[in-house]
Amino acid sequence: MKPAYTGVKYDRTPAELQQYILTCILAGGKTASDVEKKVNAVTAEVPDGTMPCDHLLQKANLKEYLQCNRTGMYQRLMGAISQITQLDLKTATVEELRTIPGVGPKTSRLFLLRSRRNVSHAAIDTHTLKFLRSNGVSRVPEKTPVSDCEYLRLEAELLRLFAEKYPDLTPTEADAKVWESYRR
Fold it and tell me: Does residue 108 sit in the same domain as residue 134?
């Protein structure tokens, strides 16, 4: 299979969507290049045109295969690979994506922002939290909130600010602009 692409791409094939959601799941706390290497190693032998998760599920010992490729999160990833095959990633909603082990509010929204056009979601991370604080939003935590209620509150504030500060940009483009401004 071709190497994973982690940027914005709206015309991903179903196989590329599976590869990308695996990338999103493994991304927590790691650099993009580290995650790409791990996903590329795990999916390297997947024949072009084959669904990566279907191929991986055919492994006699999937956990051992993941361990050899040093992915980490072995149990979670095995559950995710199985669940991913049950979803149509071209149409899956935030709620459906969240049924995948390892996919929470941030990962589900990041996946949608970078794989679909005209998505009205925001991925809350350290960069967007800094942006919210610098624009006077109250009660902004230091880390991505785990509470759905708090996440939705901050997402609404962020989308409001995106529309106000960057009226000509999509949420995906505004997110990239904020990331670039606050990544240092």
Answer: no
Distance separating alpha carbons of residues 56 and 76, to the nearest angstrom: 14
Determine the pLDDT at residue 184.
Answer: 67
What is the number of structural domains in the chain? 2
pTM of the shown model: 0.89
- Asked whether residue 51 falls in the same domain as residue 104, the answer is yes
Residue 150 and residue 91 share a domain: no
- Model confidence at 29: pLDDT above 70: no
d(C-alpha 140, C-alpha 46), whole Å: 43
Structure tokens at 153: 């509150």
Residue whose tokens read 């990331």: 179
Q: How confident is the model at residue 4 (pLDDT cuts 50, 70, 90)?
A: confident
